[in-house]
Amino acid sequence: MKTRGMMMLFPFILAACVLVTSGCSGKGKQAKPGEGAREVKKYVIGFSQCTTTEPWRVLFNRRLAAEAAKHPDVELIVMDAQDNLETQVAQIESFISKEVDAILISPKVSSGFSKVMGSAKAKGIPFIVLDRDLEPADYTAFVGADNRLIGEAAGRYVVKLLGGDGAAKGKVYEIWGGKGSEPANDRHNGFHKIVGAETGIEVFGDQDCDWKQDLAKKQMETILQLHQDIDVVYAHNDPMAYGAYLAAKESGVADKIQFVGIDGNPDEGAVWVKEGKLAATFLYPTPGEKGLETALEVLAGKEVPQKITLQTAVILPENADDFMK
Length: 325
Known about the structure:
By secondary structure, the chain is an alpha/beta fold. The protein has helices at residues 55-69, 85-97, 114-122, 147-161, 182-195, 213-226, 238-250, 269-274, 288-299, 320-324, and strands at residues 7-10, 43-49, 74-80, 102-106, 127-130, 141-145, 170-175, 201-204, 232-235, 258-263, 280-283, 307-310, 314-315. The strands form 2 sheets. Strands 1-3-2-4-5-6-12 form a 7-stranded mixed beta sheet, sandwiched between helices. A 6-stranded mixed beta sheet has the order 8-7-9-10-11-13, with helices on both faces.
């Protein structure tokens, strides 16, 4: 559900307060009724989201906005980069020129942001990276789950599905997310670290479906014309796993294949597991809430770790209800 040129502004300003500076410098004053010209700090925080076409990122934005609403001293500016690196770099440049108090970014890819990171650092603007890590790591902090460990957890689960350590046998089709992104590569490498030790498991699949359900469905339709002996589909996110399931269902072979994804959104992956459409998914927690908390801690003068790792969990039919709440 992409909206071109969209910029969502969440002011979250107390009804009785007035921000009296121009622009987004975060340097202004607020006057409270009965308190004259008392100064109250208003933090302006810019956030660039790489895309809003993926359901996980829609949830990410919604949770971040809800967290910002809890802080009357925070004005959150959200921009959608529409899957474009140059657009995202330009958004960060605009935040820097407006002298926002902190920058949050969930990048499209892992490189290409060195110059803007350096510019933010030169101006003393905290630069918090969410979800996808950047190279070089010249930022204030990174907040996200460990995708390599999630890939390993998925690998262990698939080995168990196919017979267990040392005895597992079967054919696994892998559906990639964006190959230019670190999460996709980590989910691939972590998975192969585990299943690669099992001589009875064959893994194939090299198609980049860019995290999109429709692309994964089309790809699975093509693959099923060539391979009718797939035992497990491992997709780098739940929408792609579900797209593969839909293709298999239309071909009449969905009951012969088990589908494994990653994300665990309460209204998607967890539901599909509960319904038996996916065998399992692995929670990929949204990092916006912790990212905002980290930015505010930095602005308050506190020291924070440069790497903050969020925890995962396996979602199965027996515990799916807990993740749907």
